[in-house]
């Protein structure tokens, strides 16, 4: 049931075909059926889609090619925050957020602990972003660019599979 309500709300929000009353009612229904976790999940999906939507709408016409840059960097931690780990490369306790940009447009910012590989989760994020871009620009050429941290065998293999699918 959550997926039906969530998709209705997402469709209405993305198409701007809702009144404030309708959004409140849909959110209240989702809360009654799925609790706060359902509402938070909906908000997170809307935020994720918002960044890509702003990017796509910033163009007057469909570009021939876009370059998506993947990067992970340190976000130093001071104190004893949850998820803090020492990262040898950065010589610090830090988080290791994943960023995906296209030019100056931020498409993804995912806060992660630093006890994982820099490329962890990047395929899932790229899949989400590329699918959303493809709904508006099915023919645009998409180039993925990342440093050596994103050139692991598994990521390269999966990206090749996506490439065969038209990425």
Would you kindly provide a written description of the structure presented here, covering whatever features stand out?
This protein has about 170 residues and is of the alpha+beta class. Helices cover about 45% and strands about 20% of the residues. The protein folds into 2 domains: about 1-50, no CATH class; about 60-165, no CATH class. It has 4 helices and 7 strands. The strands form 2 sheets. A 4-stranded mixed beta sheet has the order 6-5-1-7. The protein has a 3-stranded antiparallel beta sheet with strand order 2-4-3, with no helix packed on it. A hairpin with a 2-residue loop joins strand 5 (about 100) and strand 6. Helix 1 packs across helix 2 (about 20-55) and helix 2 (about 20-55) crosses helix 3 (about 120-135). The chain is flat and about 50 Å long.
Short description:
By secondary structure, this protein is α+β, with helices and mostly antiparallel strands. It has four helices and seven strands, in the order H-H-E-E-E-E-E-E-H-E-H.
Structural class, please? Answer: alpha+beta
Compute the CA-based radius of gyration.
18 Å
Low-confidence stretches: none
Number of domains: 2
Helix content: 40-55%
